[in-house]
Amino acid sequence: MTNAKTNVATDAGARTITVSRTFAAPRERVFRAFTEPEHLAHWWGPDGWQVETLAHELVPGGVWHFVLRGPDGTESWSKATYQEITPPARLVYSDVFSDREGNTVEGMPVMVVTIDFVERDGKTTVTDTTQFPSEEVLQQVVEMGVAEGITQTWERLAVYLGRE
């Protein structure tokens, strides 16, 4: 799926979804938007959803535990565990659905997310590649509407970066 600015591509054989977009902001600013809860609170999640960070430690092995709340009160809890942090160029973390306490929900797959930030002429291209444990899990996520959700999320980021 592609809109005018965000490209979302799936590769079933590689079990990945890759999302890319160029933002009109310097790399350091975009990296902070992805790594600091005070920034994430303004844009993380699709239209109508809000994020609340319960824990955040930006170090290898550190955890970002958060909940997304939908306009109808739906809650989606997640826990990301940072594996690699190379400011302002790269983030790698595992992501899994959790409960309120941060425990992994039994039977839920762990996804590995790699985000690269490349600056050119004052703009930053962000490429997010999410690796799924199987083609079946990838297909389930695609059917849940991930392309639409991530497109809305990154549009919110573009608006937020324009206001900062």
UniProtKB/TrEMBL annotation:
Ranges of residues in domain Activator of Hsp90 ATPase homologue 1/2-like C-terminal: 24-162
Top-level division of the source organism's lineage: Bacteria
Positions in coiled-coil regions: none
Pfam families with a match to the protein in the record: AHSA1
InterPro entries reported for this sequence: ASHA1/2-like_C (IPR013538), START-like_dom_sf (IPR023393)
SUPFAM superfamilies: Bet v1-like (SSF55961)
Family: Belongs to the AHA1 family.
Designated name of the protein: Activator of Hsp90 ATPase homologue 1/2-like C-terminal domain-containing protein
